[in-house]
């Protein structure tokens, strides 16, 4: 069975500091991996995804993530946090089979201090 | 969220009432899903469908029914609403390659 673990339900950084949101997954088959962002009272917005190919994936708003198969990780980073990055972030994994079911982590709320 | 339309966006129900959350997509995708989002739990899969006439249960199916009579539509029915079903619901439509997923804008449901 697949699962996703996001370490830290809340992460607080200062404006301009590095953002690191952790995601580990388990999957018996090669996964697709996703990061979504959700602003208050809004829907989900795709930040980036890994399907195949290059393991370092660049997304929108300056975010990137690296797929590390040996560590079963897909951590999200951004070199310099902006106040506008304050939101909730979800990591998700899906199976490359006929179901394409997405399994989500429990989410990490990013707080950005001025 | 182009292509996936969810209605209504907000709804308040009384315990025991029934209602249907509508989801429609115009991308001819075979795969569609319903998720619910609760604080601290991420999104959990309720039901999914791999094509017209084919549905299956996800992680939290109890209290919900679905049907898929057409490729475009995948309604979610609450037969007898309970306060535990207060949540935000998201419909998703998935491209056949599986690597692109389109979400609706969400439906905020409160059961009192």
Please tell me about this protein's structure.
- The complex is a heterodimer of chains A (114) and B (112).
- Chain A has 114 residues and is mostly beta strands.
- In chain A, 0% of the residues lie in helices and 57% in strands.
- Chain A is built from no helices and 11 strands.
- In chain A, the strands form 2 sheets. In chain A, strands 2, 4, 5, 9, 10 and 11 form a 6-stranded mixed sheet that branches.
- Chain A is globular and about 45 Å long.
- Chain A starts with a strand and ends with a strand.
- In chain A, 35% of the residues are buried.
- The mean pLDDT of chain A is 91.
- The model of chain B has no long low-confidence stretch (mean pLDDT 93).
- Chain B is 0% helix and 53% strand.
- In chain B, the strands form 2 sheets. In chain B, strands 2, 4, 5, 6, 9, 10 and 11 form a 7-stranded mixed sheet that branches. Chain B has a 4-stranded antiparallel sheet with strand order 1-3-8-7, with no helix packed on it.
- Chain B has strands at 4-7, 10-13, 19-25, 31-38, 42-51, 54-57, 64-66, 76-78, 87-94, 101-103, 107-111.
- Chain B contains no helices and 11 strands.
- Chain B has 112 residues and is mainly β.
- Chain B is globular.
- The A-B interface holds A 4, 6, 9, 32, 34, 41-44, 46, 49, 51, 90, 92, 94-96, 98-107 and B 1, 31, 33, 35, 40-45, 48, 50, 56, 58, 90, 92, 94, 98-99, 101, 103-106, 108.
């Amino acid at each position: 069975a697949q699962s996703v673990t996001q370490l830290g339900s809340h992460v607080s950084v200062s404006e301009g500091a590095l953002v690191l949101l952790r995601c580990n997954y388990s999957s018996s088959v090669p996964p697709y991996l996703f990061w979504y962002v959700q602003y208050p009272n809004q829907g989900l917005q795709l930040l980036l995804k890994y399907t195949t190919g290059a393991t370092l994936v660049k997304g929108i708003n300056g975010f990137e993530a690296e797929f590390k198969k040996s560590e079963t990780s897909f951590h999200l980073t951004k070199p310099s946090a902006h106040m506008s990055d304050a939101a909730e972030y979800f990591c998700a994994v899906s199976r490359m089979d006929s179901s394409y079911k997405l399994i989500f982590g429990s989410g990490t709320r990013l707080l950005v201090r001025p | 969220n182009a292509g996936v339309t969810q209605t209504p966006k907000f709804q308040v129900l009384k315990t025991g009432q029934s209602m249907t959350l509508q989801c429609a997509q115009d991308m001819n995708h075979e795969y569609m899903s319903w998720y619910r989002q609760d604080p601290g739990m991420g999104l959990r899969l309720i039901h999914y469908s791999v094509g017209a006439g084919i549905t299956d249960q996800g992680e939290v199916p109890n209290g919900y029914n679905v049907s898929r009579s057409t490729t475009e539509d995948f309604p979610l029915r609450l037969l007898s609403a309970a306060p535990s079903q207060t949540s935000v619901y998201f419909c998703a439509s998935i491209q056949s390659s599986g690597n692109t997923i389109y979400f609706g804008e969400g439906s905020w449901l409160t059961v009192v």
